[in-house]
């Protein structure tokens, strides 16, 4: 298809959020957390651009964009009595009422 020879969708980093936030999933190089925009190009001219919804990781080395790894789970305490997941700031289990 001719369209795909002369144009395409590119992702471009627009703003650095966190330098060296992770490692590239493809080559293992340093990757940054960035805000990005998608750019539609026709004949190498940007004709339309719109911002990405979520920040992405971008590799310094191979320019790969990929979703950041999920943030580490927040600490959850487990009630010893009923085994429910409980916010660690609670002193009593909201499910069974036993002291934590
Ligand atoms: Zn890479
Ligand atoms: Zn409980």
UniProtKB/TrEMBL annotation:
Listed InterPro entries: Double_zinc_ribbon, Zinc_ribbon_15
Classification via PANTHER family: DOUBLE ZINC RIBBON PROTEIN MJ0416, OS05G0435400 PROTEIN
Species this protein is from: Dorcoceras hygrometricum
Domain Zinc-ribbon: 23-97
Domain of life: Eukaryota
Protein name, entry field: Zinc-ribbon 15 domain-containing protein
Pfam families hit by this protein: Zn_ribbon_15
């Amino acid at each position: 298809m001719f369209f795909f020879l002369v144009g395409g969708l590119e992702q471009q980093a627009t703003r650095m959020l966190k330098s060296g936030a992770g490692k590239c999933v493809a080559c293992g190089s340093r990757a940054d957390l960035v805000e990005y925009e998608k750019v539609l190009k026709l004949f190498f001219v940007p004709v339309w651009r719109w911002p990405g919804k979520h920040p992405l990781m971008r590799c310094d080395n191979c320019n790969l964009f990929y979703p950041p790894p999920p943030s580490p789970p927040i600490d959850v305490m487990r009630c010893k009595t009923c085994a429910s997941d409980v916010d660690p700031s609670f002193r009593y289990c909201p499910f069974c009422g036993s002291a934590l």
